[in-house]
């Protein structure tokens, strides 16, 4: 097997972005100009996440609160609330799949979601959005959600040979009542199940992190603990 190239761009400790009062260490790594589907599968299984052209995973000195989470689309069993959201909205939402793109509509929707849901203090520029969600080294798709002709949510998903990774999702805050974030994950699980994908990786979970704890609601799931994937029924 060919050894994958690896370059550490940054490796330092900083205040944790997820759990207040803790120290995080998430080295930023580069695996070359192109990461193929099989290589992406291996990186995801090792707990890596992608941001733009770079990859990272927690290697914090004194904390193991964050754990990578993955769900088998074939074994997934939605809760009663998730079933209700899907039944309510499946016939109202049109889903389109393409490549990640950038335009005024997406940038405005992204920044509204970011600022109105307190996910950041400053709006992204076109350059920042492109570097975050469009510029990628691996196969990546954009899943768009429309109400009529209006784009209401966007999910960016990395595509491996046997696994997908839910990179980021944003939506119109005015549509929050029908839980578009939940619907987007359910849609990705549904698409992955139809295409016989083994796992959908949901990113990092931490019980005490307000923006990460929702991932506990998708069962059964596996969490990466000390290099081993453990089943959480």
Structure, described:
This protein is α+β, with helices and mostly antiparallel strands and 233 residues long. The protein is 24% helix and 32% strand. It has 2 domains: 7-69, no CATH class; 71-217, Gcn5-related N-acetyltransferase (GNAT) (Aminopeptidase, 3-Layer(aba) Sandwich). Strands 8-9-10-11-12-7-13-14 form an 8-stranded mixed beta sheet, sandwiched between helices. Strands 1-4-6-5 form a 4-stranded antiparallel beta sheet. Strands 2-3 form a two-stranded antiparallel sheet. The radius of gyration is 17 Å and the shape is globular. It starts with 6 loop residues before the first strand and ends with a strand.
Features:
single chain; 233 residues; alpha+beta; Aminopeptidase; 8-stranded mixed sheet; 4-stranded antiparallel sheet; 24% helix
Summarize the structure.
The chain has 233 residues and is α+β, with helices and mostly antiparallel strands. The protein is 24% helix and 32% strand.
- Biggest sheet, in brief? 8 strands, mixed
Number of domains as seen in the coordinates: 2
Strand percentage lies at 25-35%
Rough shape?
globular
Secondary-structure map:
Layout: E1 7-10, E2 13-15, E3 23-25, E4 28-30, H1 37-45, E5 49-51, E6 54-56, E7 67-71, H2 80-89, E8 93-98, H3 104-116, H4 126-134, E9 140-147, E10 150-159, E11 163-171, H5 180-194, E12 199-205, E13 221-225, E14 228-232
Parallel strand pairs: 11-12
Antiparallel strand pairs: 1-4, 2-3, 4-6, 5-6, 7-12, 7-13, 8-9, 9-10, 10-11, 13-14
